[in-house]
């Protein structure tokens, strides 16, 4: 099968490395209005793709079966929709979309066309985080108080300097995947605020988010792009959980993760392998993105709350089982 990578920025290297290691998908086209980024990516990995600035241009140059959507979050819905409408499978970076109606539209279109629609969820499926989730599930009984900090530094901020509410759309969405693994009760209400801290760096911004759950559980999140590496948390975050008679913490050291052979492939590579596996299943392609709709519902409420500066009810995810 042949793929067009749309968006050739920082995260594209990770995808190219994983797809080359997997070997089942050929990178047939690199699409980016910034042709220099596409050229640098191609040279670094000795690819021989078609170069294009739009999907239509790429399709005129070479046949493609799959679109890998690596554009900034506010382009995700449009790019994925266009690909599905062309009859192409879609593997997309998170978030699936910025609001629940758009995410549902993608899911319905993928189902209608029999196409794969899968979204990256590398933090919520990180093996270290899943072990922590198991500790919580075995040892604790809800309701829980969950607190997470995720303060990251970036070698290149890319789109984040110009994205509206960048921490909420780019970073907090990981925490939504993670907290849904810890607290299984439905989320009811989100309060979110995000403040640019441009006095540190143009992309710097801090978000605080509170989520209430139907069983009384509470999640508080503080995330941001900071500058000094000494202050950063691991990109998976620093997690604390307390329940009656139970407490647990997971705070991976950002300096040592994935450095040992026993750690196995990083979570993003496992996710990409699972997506490629799904593409090769016989029969109609599945739509694993359905499982991520709960995270999009939280993101939807968080973005609304940050805009109107009030708590917002979490939209209910309809049952979209086939
Ligand atoms: N899963 C993870 O751990 C992880 C980590 C980092 C980034 N991401 C996600 O990956 C995506 C890209 O992030 P990045 O860090 O590579 O950003 P980036 O800013 O470095 O790169 C984005 C690229 O997309 C290109 N682009 C913009 N609009 C486009 C369009 N309409 N068509 C084609 N190309 C377009 C830009 O020119 C740029 O080269 C984001 O959704 C981000 O949230 C995920």
- Stretches where pLDDT falls below 50 for ≥5 residues? none
CATH topology of the largest domain: Rossmann fold
Q: What is the highest CATH level, the class of the largest domain? A: Alpha Beta
Bound molecules: nicotinamide-adenine-dinucleotide
**Residues in helix, %:** 25-40%
Largest beta-sheet characterization:
7 strands, mixed
Mean pLDDT, to the nearest integer, reads 96
N- and C-termini, Cα separation:
26 Å
Strand content: 15-25%
Number of domains: 2
A few lines on this structure:
By secondary structure, this protein is α/β, with parallel strands linked by helices. Helix content is 34%, strand content 23%. The site of nicotinamide-adenine-dinucleotide (NAD) has 25 residues, from loops.
Strands, helices and their partners?
Blueprint: E1 2-6, H1 12-22, E2 26-31, H2 35-44, E3 50-52, H3 55-61, E4 66-69, H4 76-85, E5 89-92, H5 100-113, E6 117-119, H6 127-139, E7 145-152, H7 166-182, E8 187-196, E9 205-213, E10 218-225, E11 238-243, E12 246-250, H8 267-279, H9 293-308, E13 312-313
Parallel strand pairs: 1-2, 1-4, 2-3, 4-5, 5-6, 7-10
Antiparallel strand pairs: 7-11, 8-9, 8-13, 9-10, 11-12
Helix pairs in contact: 1-8, 4-5, 7-9
